[in-house]
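Appendix B, example 12.
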Amino acid sequence: MPNIDLSNCELNSADGDGEAIAKLLRSFPALKSLDLSANDKLGARAAHDIAGGLAASRSITSITFADCNLTAGDTSRDTSGSVALINAIKQHPTLKSANFSDCNLKEDAGEALGRVLAENRTLAELNLKGGNSIRINEDSLFDWAKAQNMRETGKKAPDGMTAMLEGLKVNKSLKSLELSGYNVAAVALAEALKVHPALQSLDLSGCCLEGEEWKTVAAGLAQNRVLTWLDLRNTPMDVEGAKAIVDAVKDKRQLKTILGLTKQTRLTTQTVTPAIALLLAFELKKNSVLEELNLEHGNIVGLNYGLHANKKAYNAEGITAFGEMLRGNSTLTSIKLNKNNLTDADKKLINDANAQRKNPLVKLEL
């Protein structure tokens, strides 16, 4: 019984399910993987029980709590269960992968994660994706509304996030970190990127960083030597931030993508702002994976209502970089750019670039 899947099983504290799972963790020395995702009534009490079993296990290498409500059945403010689970990882001798995505973790969980990253020597993958949580509330680390309010009132990222990234700075084992949807502390992240010896994959898609913060992250990326995969999609980045990112990574051969692109990647068109278009153009100059690109109804020149709905203004830098990319890219065969509010000059730029390709696009929609 090396792998057990209990996802979406309606587990909850009231039925004693937490105690049963703890017993399972203690009783099966061959257990390697446990999936408890999508149990939205698990609750803090069950989380405490499971934490005890997890700490006692000496075989498990992967545990998943994705989309679990670790406070249900108690009070919505009771965060002690999630903290107990995280603390159980701190000295764990075998655990390599932990998934807390969409668990609505609070600031005290971030502080606990900082201690885990500072002390644990086996954890290689940590998934904290939070952008799609249906339980986001006013004190969640993942709340974009809160993040924006913090910026408007001059406050920084939550202390829990900063503490977690301080732990990352001294960590030696983590290879993959997903922070999608977070209100990231830019300075702490940049410092960690400068010194981390093993981190190869970093997901910052949907992260609430703006303006100068991206230049801070770029400074960290400039000194990083190990990152091979980075995802910056769906972020409120401006063009100056995008330029700083490109300048920081342009000579890094080991970094294969900055937008998480694969053959199956589907970009969210409304969030392809001029800044993201600039990143995409840089990416496609060297990316030999994508053959078809659909940016229909996009926001490539900043005139559609997308991520920057309150900053609707024409910006040609993304489309200009896109045209330059087209001349050098050799793998794309189809591009849809219609319904982007392109000007006649924009369309001419793209058509001219396509005409100069060795193998013109099979399909081009403007």
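The mean pLDDT is 86. The first strand starts at residue 3 and ends at 5.
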